[in-house]
């Protein structure tokens, strides 16, 4: 049975945010891999939104080109980076909010 706790709520919110970011980055990775044209409104929107997420990681490693396919290493690095950041934030929330989950000490 699921028992609601104060520490679970912030972790759930952070998980949702990280999952949405990761989904968008995977979508970007697939679109770039298959060479999707940014003349499409949907593809242009995905590139625009995820371009801001990937920007801090761009240029760290060169892109990998296999035949006609391009693997953006900066997108993969961003996925790893945001997963680690999300995990750290969840750990901090769990540490801070775990004090509220403890029963009060009675004398």
Short structural summary:
The protein is mainly alpha-helical. It contains 3 helices and 2 strands, in the order ααββα.
* Oligomeric category: single chain
Globular, elongated, flat, extended or rod-shaped: what is the shape? Answer: elongated
| Major β-sheet annotation | 2 strands, antiparallel
What is the succession of H and E elements? Answer: HHEEH
Structural class: mainly alpha
Task: Describe the model.
Helix 1 packs across helix 2 (41-54) and helix 1 (8-33) runs antiparallel to helix 3. This protein is mostly helical. The chain is elongated, with a radius of gyration of 19 Å. It has a two-stranded antiparallel ribbon with strand order 1-2. It has helices at 8-33, 41-54, 73-101; strands spanning 64-66, 69-71.
Features of this protein?
107 residues; 2 strands
Summarize the topology:
Layout: H1 8-33, H2 41-54, E1 64-66, E2 69-71, H3 73-101
Helix pairs in contact: 1-2, 1-3
